[in-house]
Amino acid sequence: MKKPAPTLALGPVLYLWDGPKWRDFYFRIADEAPVSHVTVGETVCSKRLHFTEPYIADVIERLQTAGKTVRVVSLAIVTLERESQYVRSLIRDSGHIVEANDLSALRLLNGRPHAVGPLVNVYNVAAARVLAARGATSICLPPELPMRSVAQIVAGVPEVAFEVFSFGRVPLAISARCAHARSKGHTKDNCQFVCSEDPDGLSVDTLEHRPFLALNGVQTVSHTCQALVGELSDLALCGVSRFVLSPQDCDMVAVSRVYDDVLKHHIDVEDAMSRLHQIYPGVPLSNGFHHGQVGAAWIAHTKSVSLGAEI
Amino acid sequence: MKLPPLLAAPFAVIPLPVINRATRLMLFRVLKQHPGLFDRLGEHLGKRYGFVPTDLPLTFVVEPARPMITVSRKPGTPHADAIVEGPFFLLLALLEGRGDADALFFSRDLAVTGDMESIMSLRNALDDCSVDLPRDLSVAAGPLRPLFKRAAGWIRDRALSGESVWN
Amino acid sequence: MELICPAGTPASFREAVDAGADVVYCGFRDETNARNFPGLNFTRKELEQSIAYAQSKGTQTYVALNTFMRAGDEIVWYEAVDDAVRLGADAVIVADFGLMAYVAEYHPRQRLHVSVQASASNVDAINFLVDAFGAKRVVLPRILTIPDIARIARQITCEIEVFVFGGLCVMAEGRCSLSSYATGKSPNMNGVCSPASHVRYRQDGNDLVSELGDYTINRFPDGEAAGYPTLCKGRFEVAGQYGYAFEDPVSLDVMDHIDGLREAGVCALKIEGRQRGKAYVAEVVSTLRRTLSADSRSRPALIHRLKLLSEGQQTTSGAYEKRWR
C-alpha cells in the first residue's frame, strides 16, 4: 500500500495560556501554518478547562474553514468523577475526531474512528493492532520510542496512520501532585492557576544551575526541545504519515514552515536547524530518544542506520 | 555500632601475609559451601569489589572471577571497580544476607562508590545465598579462627536477639 | 484482605512465604518486568522451585510481566507469559495491552491482573481492560484517594489491589520517561528506573552527591538520610529555590488506612520492594502480617519501626490522602 506523502500536525497546547492568546495562536495557525491536522483542547489538567472553553468553538471553526482536520484531545489523567464525566461528554457530544490520551477514552471510543495521542503506551505492533481493531485510525507514538520500534510498528499495522512527536519539549511525566503549584507555595486544590505564569513551562535546574526539566502544572516536560529534522526523511521512508509539532511559546507558524520546507526539500537540515535555533532561542534541541539514547542528547550526524534495508 | 576495640586491635599487629592467607582460606571455604555464590554476577563477574571497614585498619578486594581476596592495610583506598564502606559487622551482615543494603544506605551507615551496577549484582548474589559464617568457617580460619568465630558470634547474637542489624 | 509480597530472589521468596505472605510476586531475570536490576530475579528453574515451595505452604505466586514489549522482540514477552503459565503462576501481572491481548487469546483460563504500570486510574479505563481482555484484578495507580478508590470499586466488576507499603512513584506509573530522558533507559522499555549503570555517588566535602547520567540529582549533607537516586526524588532549583521539586525521599506507608481501604472494597494489599534484601522482606512481611490482624490502636506501634528501613527513613500516605497533591 503506497502511503501519501507525510504532512504536519499540530499537537495540543500543553501549557496554560490565557484565553485570548490561545485563540489568537490558533487563528494564526489556521491562516498561515502549513499543517494538515490540528489537535485542540486541554489534556494536562482538568482544572484548566474553563480557560479555553469560551473560545474553542471559534477556534475550531476557523481551523476548519482553513481546511485543517480538527481533533479534540482527551485528558491524560482521569481520576475524579468530574473528569470521567468530562471525557464521556467530550466523546458523546463532539462532532470531531477525538484524540485519546488515556485508557478511559479508548473504551468510550471503541467502534468509532478516533485518534490516539502520544500519552497512550503503544510500544509494539500488538498494542497498535488492539487499537486499530477498536477503531483507531491514527496513532501518535510515545516520544521515547526509538526509530527501530517506530519502523516495526508502522510496517506492522499499515491501516493506521502513524504520527511521530517531532518538535517540542517532550512530555515526560504526569502526576496526581502539582509540582508547579507547590513550587509557588500552593497545593493542587488551591493552585490559583499559577502555571499560567509560565507559558513555556517553569524551569527545573540541577543544583549546579543546569536547566534540566520544566514544570507544566501536573506535567513535567523536558528542558530540551525534541527536534527531529534530519530524521524526517528516514521516518517518511518507513511510512510515518504525520510529524507532530507540539506548541511552544515561540513562533509556531515559523516552526511549521521550517518543517514544511524540509519535507519539500527546499532547505537542508543544517539550514533548518539554524532557523529553529533562531525561532526558539535559548532552548537546546534534542533527538536522543529517536536514536535509542539519552533523551536529552543531541546525536550530531543523523544519517541513521540504514533502515531502507530493513523495510 | 562499631567493632569493639578488643576485636579490632589485633588486626593492626598481625602480619599481613597471615591475614591474607586466613582470609583466602575463608573465601574458599565459603565458596565450597556455596558454589553458586557468584552466579548472579553475570557480566560483573570480572569486576573488582573493594570493602573498607570503617572500624578496622584493613581494606579488602574481592575478585570473583579468579576467585581471590586481597587484604591491604590502611591508609590507601583499594584499587577496585566499586567500593563499599561501613562498619565491619555490617559488611559481614550483608555477606550473610542479614541486613538490607538499601536501608543501610538510606541511613548512611553504608557508603558505596564506583560501579553501582556491579555492586548491586553482588548484593543480590549474596542475598540469595544463605552464607552462615560461623557454620561455613568453622574449620577454615586457621590461626585467626578464634578471632573470626568471636566476631561472627558477636554479630549473630545481635541478629538473633531481635535487634536488627540496621537499628 | 490478601497480603501480596515482593521477592527478587528465591531466598527472599522463601522468606516472604515463611513470614506469612498470602501471595508472593516476582519476575523473570530479564527485561519482561519492571525490576530488571542486575543480579535480581528468577530463572525458569528458580521460579518452578519457588512456586513448588509456595504451593507446599498454601501460598500463591504472581508473575510480573509488566514492561512494554519492544517492537520486533515481542517473542521474549510471549515466551515469558507461556512459561509463567506452564510453571503454574496463579496470576500474571501485565501492563501492555498488546500483551494482555496475547494472554487473553492464548491463555484464556490464565488469571490476568492489570499492573499498576498500565495506569488504569478510573472506571472506564478499568472496564476497558476487563471487557477486552478478561482482567480479573486491577492494581490501582498510586494517584487515587481512598474515596476515589471506593467510588471506583462500586462501578467495576474486577478486584482491586493497592500498594500500601514501600517505594512510591511520584509520577503516574507507566507514564514516566524521566529516567530515559536522563539515561536512555526507562521503566516502560527496559524495566529500570534510574538504572544503577548510570548512577554515581561521590563525596564532595561533607556532602554525598548523587549523579544520574550527566546530571547532579541530589546532595546529602553528612548524616542526612538518603534515598534512591530517582529523578522524582531529587533536589533541584525551581524559581530560585532549592529543594525537592517533586517529592522528598520518602516511601509509602498507608497501613494506618487499612480499615478505610477494606471498606472501600480493596481485596489485596501490596508491598513494593522486589529489589530489597531478604532481611527486609522478612521483616516487612511479618510486621505487616501482624498489623493486619491487630486492632487499629496497636497498629502504629507495630509499623513504626519499619520507618527505619524506608527510603529517606520517612514515610508518606502519598496520594491516598488528598492533601498530598
Give a description of the structure.
The complex is a heterotrimer of chains A (311), B (167) and C (325). Chain A is α/β, with parallel strands linked by helices and 311 residues long. Chain A has helices at 19-32, 49-52, 56-65, 81-93, 103-108, 125-133, 147-156, 179-183, 232-237, 252-263, 269-279; strands spanning 7-10, 37-40, 69-73, 97-100, 114-116, 136-140, 161-174, 202-205, 211-216, 219-227, 242-245, 285-286. Chain A has a single domain, classed as Aldolase class I (TIM Barrel, Alpha-Beta Barrel). The model of chain A is unreliable at 304-311 (pLDDT under 50). Chain B is 44% helix and 16% strand. In chain B, strand 2 (58-63) and strand 3 (68-73) form a beta hairpin. The two termini of chain C are 27 Å apart. In chain C, helix 1 (10-18) packs parallel to helix 10. Helices cover 32% and strands 21% of the residues of chain C. Classes of the chains: A alpha/beta (311), B alpha+beta (167), C alpha/beta (325). Chains in contact: A-C, B-C. Chains A and C meet through helix 4, helix 5, helix 6, helix 7 and strand 7 of A and helix 4, helix 5, helix 7, strand 10 and strand 11 of C. Strand 8 (202-205) of chain A pairs antiparallel with strand 11 of chain C, so a sheet runs across the interface. Chain B: InterPro entries: SCP2_sterol-bd_dom, SCP2_sterol-bd_dom_sf.
Series of H and E elements of chain B: HHHEEEEHHEHHH
* Adjacency order of strands in the biggest sheet of chain C: 1-2-3-4-5-6-7-14
Residue runs with pLDDT of under 50 for 5 or more positions of chain B: 159-167
Helix/strand order of chain C: EHEHEHEHEHEHEHHEEEEEEHEHHE
Question: How would you state the average pLDDT of chain C, rounded?
Answer: 94
- Supply the CATH superfamily name of the largest domain in chain C: Aldolase class I
What structural class should be given to the helix and strand makeup of chain B?
alpha+beta
Instruction: List how many beta strands of chain C DSSP finds.
Output: 15
Distance between the termini of chain B: 9 Å
Number of helices of chain B: 8
Helicity of chain C, as a percent range? 25-40%
How would you state the average pLDDT of chain B, rounded?
A: 83
**CATH C-level category of chain B:** Alpha Beta
Q: Using CB atoms under 8 Å apart, which protein chain pair has the greatest interface?
A: A-C, 74 and 71 residues
Oligomer: heterotrimer
The stretches of 5 or more residues of chain C where confidence is low (pLDDT under 50) are: none
Write the CATH architecture name of the largest domain in chain C.
Alpha-Beta Barrel
- The global form of chain B is globular
What is the β-strand count of chain B? 5
Q: Structurally, how many domains make up the residues of chain B?
A: 1
